[in-house]
Amino acid sequence: MSSGGGGGDSETTLRYADYIEEKHKSFLEEVQTQRISAVADNPFEDYTDIEVNDAFFGAGYTITSFPSLYDMFGKFMAGLDIDILYTQIFEEVVNSPIVGDLVHAEGALMNDDIETNSYPRIDAGARDLNSVNGSTFIIAKALIEDGRIKALNKFSSQLKYNLIPVTQAVWQSHLEWNKGVIGVYAEIMKFFYASKADIDEINYAMAAKSALWPFTVLDFERAALGALQGATVSKTDVAGASTASKVLSGALSGAAMGSMVGAQIAPATAATETMAATTGGAGWGAAGGAILGIGAALTY
Predict the structure, then answer these.
(1) Full pLDDT tens readout for the chain, 300 residues
(2) Residue 10 in 3-state DSSP?
(3) What is the radius of gyration, based on Cα positions, of the chain?
(4) d(CA 61, CA 59)
(5) How many angstroms separate the CA atoms of 34 and 290, rounded?
């Protein structure tokens, strides 16, 4: 770098002990060798994007292959008449063929009991009283038949009455099932879109890391280049579209800072002045600062 003065311009270069510079130079050469090898070995280029539709629905199907949430709601809820639904369930439960079969079976048991027990006793009693042809005998049989009909009707009514709570439970379960289907369908769709957003972000991040891999390798070389300057700026994740602008801004600011370093250092030994003359002084500082600026601006 140059600075004006009464005795003329002077140029200075910041130097370290020879053994430090030699070690650092060897270190940079090794880093450069490793960087050249690493650039060609991109660990992200073989990444295969995750297909969320295949994972959820199977190959060849997408979310549009299935009814929308509003279609499902219309199928299970729109136009639903709970009174008509209750009437249908009542007919299916209370007046079902099974109930008729049970009543018929109970009637058959009653008939068998009457034919086996009741009628023989009446016939025997009427013969003993010699009243088989009398009205008393006919009335007795009529009373037995009246009792059979009443008992059978009572059994049928009691059976159907006991099935009314079952009808209520089936009706309520049907409504809850309709509601549950819509709720589960909505949760599945919500989970699908949440997963899709996460998986798309991962796919895009891996694509960005693959594209920025050469610059990522340079970021480590930048850290090696600035090893003698102390701690370096930590890296962040993929920078996206703003990376180029950060690189340009870092290069310009780094070049500006590099060109100003020499002006802050007083002339040292003859060796440092000779070094400054052979390396171009301010130009070397600007170039080095630009490289450091680019490295500081890169993120992945």
Answers:
(1) 444 445 567 777 777 788 888 888 888 888 888 888 888 888 888 888 888 888 888 888 888 888 887 787 777 776 677 888 888 888 888 888 888 888 888 888 888 887 787 767 776 766 666 665 666 767 777 787 888 888 888 888 888 888 888 988 988 888 888 888 888 888 988 898 888 899 999 999 999 998 988 888 888 888 887 777 764 454 555 544 444 344 434 444 444 444 443 444 344 333 334 333 444 444 444 444 444 444 454 444
(2) strand
(3) 48
(4) 6
(5) 22
Q: Which helix (H) or strand (E) holds 224?
A: helix 213-225
User: What is the domain count for the chain?
Assistant: 2
Asked if 235 and 136 sit in the same domain, the reply is: no
Looking at the domain assignment, is residue 55 inside a domain?
no
The answer to whether position 8 is within a domain reads: no
Q: How many residues does the chain have?
A: 300
SS3 state of residue 227: helix
User: Which residues, 6 or more positions from 3, have their beta carbon under 8 angstroms from its beta carbon?
Assistant: 9, 10, 262, 263
Q: Are residues 35 and 73 in the same domain?
A: no
98/94 Cα distance (integer angstroms): 9
d(CA 241, CA 121): 106
